[in-house]
Amino acid sequence: MKEPAVNTSLMQRMNRLKVLRYIKENPGSARCTISEATGLSLGAVTNLTGFLLKENLITESGYISEDRVGRKRIKLKVNADSHKIICVFIKEKTAGVYLTDLSGKKIKSVLLDIGFGKIEEVINKICGTIVSFNEKITAVGVSLSALVLDKGKRVVSSSLNFDNLNIKKLMEETLGYPVFVDNISISKALGYIKNNGELKKSRIVFADMEEGFGGVYVNKGEVIRDIPLEIGH
User: Fold this and answer.
1) Has residue 40 got a pLDDT over 80?
2) Which of 73, 89, 92, 200 has the most crowded Cβ, counting Cβ within 10 A?
């Protein structure tokens, strides 16, 4: 009997993300516009935006200027300063740790020399740097040149000497908030598409040869298949 409630909760979270993503990509949109674009009912959008407003993820930003009688439509936009995100890029000898807002704007950054230290030492260095920012962090994203399996729970990389390493668990236990791990080629491909709006409706293959070789097939903004391969250094 509990399964429908779980499914309803999951659907609600997915719809919140759908609405938040639309507002982020289309700042100044009204609720009725969001409803038409997402296929969600106006009532559902009103409830979803109410939650996002309460969580301070979005904010109202004035009224839409229009020649019509009736209640004015309110514009919505992402409240970029309300939450902080950490982005970590791990390479063979260095790790970049970046503090950003919800829009992706860099606030602080630190480049760490991780050399060939033990993984525990590397993770402790990264986590220590994150804590030193002294900010309320919502989540951490980690990108690295590696084979990332089981939604980030297993990381395999010959160049980094990671053998089925659970970076996600190690960092979450230390920091206490969600950590997401992915192949760096996927991160770069999605970032490139985000900054090149015309590609969101395209089918492309992204080849990354900076740290070994990685390839990503993207269909209309969605990663369909990644082919991370490593070339010996």
Assistant:
1) yes
2) 89
